[in-house]
């Protein structure tokens, strides 16, 4: 739980208030489509952690942002999946931190995922588990 809170604070700081407007513009300007390695890492992590990963629909993945100072890539994905009661929970955004091609941590409903400068595209690999 403590690591989730720390990650939320870190990502919120990095993707919002603790970077200058110029740094944020530069970071979002340098975004690139998520690599196949990052996509595969997210799919594998979701497969092993979601309650019902086979129910995922309406999935999108953002471009990746490189946080050079930390040596990590940050990607967001949005998806709707079933909960333990069998009902869909609504589309949620998840921020994923990738280090060395593996999921390092993730935060649900991270504020940085809703920044309009972050570009999204369909994520069919997540819908077709």
List keywords for this structure.
alpha+beta, six-stranded antiparallel beta sheet, 6 strands, 33% helix
Descriptive notes:
About 6% of the residues have low confidence. Helices cover 33% and strands 33% of the residues. Strand 2 and strand 3 form a beta hairpin. It is α+β, with helices and mostly antiparallel strands and 129 residues long. It is globular. Strands 1, 2, 3, 4, 5 and 6 form a six-stranded antiparallel beta sheet that branches. It is built from four helices and six strands; from the N terminus they run H-H-H-E-E-E-E-E-E-H.
What's the topology here?
Elements (H helix, E strand, L loop, with lengths): L1 H16 L3 H9 L6 H14 L2 E11 L2 E3 L4 E11 L9 E8 L2 E7 L11 E3 L1 H4 L2
Antiparallel strand pairs: 1-3, 1-6, 2-3, 3-4, 4-5
How would you sum up this structure in a few lines?
By secondary structure, the chain is α+β, with helices and mostly antiparallel strands. It has helices at 2-17, 21-29, 36-49, 124-127, and strands at 52-62, 65-67, 72-82, 92-99, 102-108, 120-122. It is globular.
Name the quaternary structure. Answer: single chain
Major sheet details: 6 strands, antiparallel
Beta-strand share of residues? 25-35%
| Tally of separate helices | 4
Residue windows where pLDDT falls under 50 for at least 5 positions: 4-11
Helical percentage? 25-40%
Dominant shape: globular
State the secondary-structure class. Answer: alpha+beta
- Give the termini separation: 28 Å
Q: What is the residue-mean pLDDT, rounded to a whole number?
A: 86
Our count of domains comes out at: 1
Question: Number of DSSP strands?
Answer: 6
Order of helices and strands: HHHEEEEEEH
Rg on CA atoms, Å: 14 Å
